[in-house]
Amino acid sequence: MADAPQDDRQNGPQEGQPSRRSSLLGTWLVGLVIGVAAISVGVVIWQGWTGKDLLVSAQGQFDDKAEPDGESDSKEEATKKKEIDPQIERLVVQPGDPQSEVQALKPGHWATGAERMQALYQDFIGELETSVVNQQGRPYPIDATPFVLTSKRPVALAKGQPKEIETTFLPPQVGTAVRVRSELVERGFGRSLRAQMPVTRMPAYQYFIVVLAKQPVRYALLKTLDSVSVPWDGETEADDSEDPLHYRVVTLPVERTIPLADNSLTWTSIAYVLWDEVDPQRFTPEQARAVVDWLHWGGQLVVSGPDSLDLLKGSFLEPYLPATSGGGRKITAKDLRQLNEHWLIATTGGGEPLSPQTPWSGVELVSQLGDGEVDQLGASTGGLLVERRVGRGRVVVSAMQLSERELVNWRGGFESLFNGGILRRPQREYRTGYYDELTLAWADPQLAEQRLEARLISGVRFFARDWGVDTNYKSADVPLDATSQWSPPEQQPVRELRPPEQVGGIGAWNDFSATASAARETLLEAAGVEVPDTSFVVICLALYLVALVPLNWLVFSAIGRVEWAWLAAPIIALAGTWVIVDRARLDIGFVRAQTEVGVLELQPNFERGHLSRYTALYTSLSTTYDIEFDNLTTVAAPFPTTSEPQEARHASGGVFVYERYDRVRLSGVFVPSNTTNMVHSEQMLPLDGAIRLGESSQGRPQIENRSQFVLRSVVVVERTSLEEEQGGQPALRGSWMGELQPGESRPVSFSQRVVMGPDESPFASERAAEVGLQGGSRLKLEPMFRLALDVKSFEPGEKRLVARIDEVLSGEAVSPAASQVGGAALVVAHLAYGARPEPLRDVNTRRDVVMSDSG
Questions:
Q1: E strands of 720-805, at which residues?
Q2: I need a surface site. Which of 32, 109, 781, 847 has the fewest CB within 10 A?
Q3: Residues ≥6 apart with Cβ < 8 Å to 112
Q4: Per residue in 22-53, pLDDT tens?
Q5: What is the pTM of this model?
Q6: Judging by DSSP bridges, how do beta strands 300-303 and 270-276 pair with one another?
Q7: The sheet that has 207-213: what strands, in order across it?
């Protein structure tokens, strides 16, 4: 019988074979070595793909802190590792000069940042994130909210092909040390390249003059003009208002494309554009539309002749030009007679009449102004400069080259012509300043305290942003330190100019304007959560008990089936529960609700409107919303639920992400349980047609609603001139029209005197009666009607239509969708504006003050 095998545990190892313990130890050692090697390889790969802790300097150059392993790589590979892929050039904040080392940023104004990128060695797919941060790299929250807004957009770079990537972002009106941070993140691998660029904060009163010229060097003199760099010698001590620049002059290259944003809502920091021999075909359709929108809301375009007019024939700007080219001409001293009479300052230090040694090359201007259009500038220049009003803005065209040497050297005339005629600003006067230095101020005594008033420097206006906003600097006494060795002349108190609360000035994104505050009030009232009071609970309980016991017993007792009352009790209980829930669901928050208040502002005879949406989102359970807009001009940000700008200014909360690419999205809108949060968005909305003031076949004025909207509570009013009203105060005249259907036209009268009471807005009783006729309830817009019909918000001679739209305007999709959606929009349609004030030359020249001092 064969011997049975023996257990290895009982027998020692055979000769020449290792023990099991030694074998296990060897396996562990091998595994350890492999693990260490795998970790080392992983670290190397991670360092390669994450950018090895990359930093970026202000010049846009990336610093690689990792050192390549020269032993394992060839010289060529080591060289490639030192390069950053993709390469990114310095961020340019449009309309900034790409060649400038210093980029300027206006707080509160949406901006477009452009970065030129190129992938050198392989295709790159990722996204770019842009935010405004402090010196510690922390993003600033939106005013009075705990939320941070960052902007993202996808980036796809083909190897070896440079591409310019644009991102739209909002610099909040907070902070002093501001930087723009860009972070490029590669999809999949998570590689991150980060850059921070310091920018100069523009004060509230400062705006851009953009020069688009074939030969930009001709306009270098603009930076030296007193209209741009204003001499000032005042009693105010050092503060941010002492920067003398009313305008930053930016000269942009126009070789291939125009480096300007394609969204007019990012043009609000631009006051003027000077155009000289630029081919309009270089503008994309989106850029062309942005220029036209900007013009209608207060932008001013100055076209320098004579060659520019030929280039503009058939372009997107031709319909808005005050004149077209009638062919070449020579401009002699005789043609300049009226220009000399109106603009030459005949004082001690004044210059001599403009008289060219040789005739200037010019163009014959053929007016294309319509009936009723007034050209006051043309009358003061003998037709050498003509202007046309376009909505709130204007277009100026010159018959000669505005950079003509003899013109710009015209002593005693050109500075005055540029300020009062070309820029159309108030009359000025040179004076001796507080410390006996030259200073320049507005000549009108009523404007004495408005040297830095943004409204006198830029004409861009939005009713939703700018009504009820203080943008002027205020002077205040500064207490002197008792230990100070300095004292002012004659021991007079030291004063300083303090900036306004809204440091973005006019045209800035504003959540605290009078209009925005009225919209917030309406939303809080409509979307508020109210717990049922005691009377509601008591009444519901009493009705339930009555139905459950006596009424239930009486019904079945009457039919002889009292035992059925027991079967009916559960049914009554369920029915009562359903009634209570249905009655209280809005109050105690059993649903998602979306409420929207809109403000739609229109300009005369223009088929696009500026739509401001204020959206309140309520939910009974914590929800994160995403909002998508189908209009690429849309900008959106969190909207404070409080009207106090200082509240929650330094709080930290969630991050809202604004993305503008194929569509506009605002994601990460977090709403806690039983809470309402709000979103503010704006866009340029296309209409089927304008809401305009026309004429009937009998020549009588009529209102024409060519839009797609049903207008209700329609009021048409006009601000009368001071001389027409008793007491010399401006007032309104107009009439109530009620409802106006799409495509409907109706005669209008401006005969009725409109009276605004202390507690109600004009035509409030008519609006209340309209609600009774329609039946049901509608969103309360009375605070907003009061603002839109306040005579102080009108320009002299302005005609305006004010109405409401009782629906939520399309173009906004909220996800997840709310079960209850409601809203309304206020319509503010400017039908016509009055004539501008007469252009005035300055009182004197700077030489008058210098000569007076020397004398």
A1: 732-740, 745-747, 752-754, 799-805
A2: 32
A3: 93, 94, 166, 167, 168, 261, 263, 266
A4: 444 444 444 544 454 444 434 333 443 333 33
A5: 0.84
A6: parallel
A7: 247-252, 207-213, 270-276, 300-303, 393-398, 385-390
